[in-house]
Amino acid sequence: MSANDRILVIGSAGQIGTELVTRLREIYKPHQVIASDIRAESTDLSGPYEKLNVLNATEVKEILQKHKITEVYLLAAMLSATGEKQPLAAWDLNMNGLFHILEAAREGQIQKLYWPSSIAVFGPTTPKINTPQLTITEPSTVYGISKLAGERWCEYYFNKYGTDVRSLRYPGLISWKSAPGGGTTDYAVHIFHEALKNGKYTCFLTENTRLPMMYMPDGIRATIDIMQASASRLSIRSSYNLAGISFTPAEIATEIKKHLPNFEISYAPDFRQAIAESWPESINDSLARNDWGWNHEYNLSKITTDMLQNLRAPK
Ligand code: AKB
C-alpha cells in the first residue's frame, strides 16, 4: 500500500471489524483506515469514521469518493442463526452489499476488495472430515446459500473484469474484545463470559458437536496476509478454505475446568444444532498454506488461557 492509498472497513463495529481496524491502523497510518458501520457514531476514536448503510448504493459511492478509497474490507453481513429468522433480509444484506462493492471495483473506483465467506458454504452432503477446497457445496442455511452465491460472484468478477477480490472461508471465530452476533459458533465465546460470571453455562449445541474454530488474532492475521499477498500467488478467487482447530463443547468445557475447576456445563440444544450438524468438523486448508504461507498459531489450550486472562483483566 502506498501513502496515497486508503482502506474502508465496512461493518467496523462487528466482531471482526473491531479488531481488524485496530490492526490495520497499526500497520498503516490511522488516517489511511476509514472505519464505517450502520451506527451513527463509533466508540473507536483512533481514526476516521463514517456512518454507512452498505445497502444504499449512493451512500457507498459517496464515501468511496470522499475518502478516495482504494481498498475495501466488506464485513457487514447477517450470520447463520439470525439469517434463519430473517431469510430475505439476510439475502438482501449479504448479496446486495457485495454487489455494491463489486460494482465499485468494476467501475474502477477501488482497486482491491476483501469479502469473507464461511464454512457455512458446506452442507449436509459435504464430506465432514478434512473437508477439501473443492467438494460438494449444498448449504442448507440462507447464510450459507448467500456465501456460496457470493463466492461464485467474486470469481465471476475476477474472471470477467479482473476484479482483485480476495476471500477466506472463516471457521467460528473466538474473541474477547468484541462479541459475535447471531452465529452458530457463538457458544465458544459465550461460554467464557458465563464461566467467569456465573461459573456455569448452558450450551445450545450438544456436547459432541465438533466444529472448526479459530482464535481472532489468527483470523485477523490471515485476513491481512491474503490481502497483502502478491496476486500471482493466489490460485483461488472464490474463497480459500481456512483452518485453525476443531473442538466440541465438551472439550472446551474440559479446558476451561483446568482454570476454573468448579465450572459446570449443561446442554439444551436448539435450532442451531441442525445448522451445526450441517457443517464440517474439520477443514483442509492446504491451498492457503501452500499458496500464501498460511499457518495458525493458537490451539485450544492457548485460546482458553488467553481468553480467560483478557476477560478477567480490569477494563
Ligand atoms: C456463524 O456461526 O454463523 C459464523 C460462521 C461460521 O460463519 N460464525
Can you describe this structure in just a few lines?
It is built from 11 helices and 14 strands. With 315 residues, the chain is α/β, with parallel strands linked by helices.
Written description of the protein model:
By secondary structure, the protein is α/β, with parallel strands linked by helices. It folds into two domains: 7-170 and 216-241, Rossmann fold; 173-213 and 244-287 and 297-312, UDP-galactose 4-epimerase, domain 1, CATH 3.90.25. The chain has eleven helices and 14 strands. The protein has helices spanning 15-27, 57-66, 80-85, 87-106, 142-161, 187-198, 216-228, 249-259, 272-277, 286-292, 300-312; strands spanning 7-10, 33-37, 49-51, 71-74, 112-114, 117-118, 164-166, 168-170, 172-174, 200-203, 211-215, 240-241, 245-247, 264-267. The strands form four sheets. Strands 3-2-1-4-5-7 form a six-stranded parallel beta sheet, with helices on both faces. Strand 1 (7-10), helix 1 (15-27) and strand 2 form a beta-alpha-beta unit. Helix 1 (15-27) crosses helix 7 (216-228). The longest helix has 20 residues, at 87-106. The site of 2-amino-3-ketobutyric acid has 11 residues, from loops.
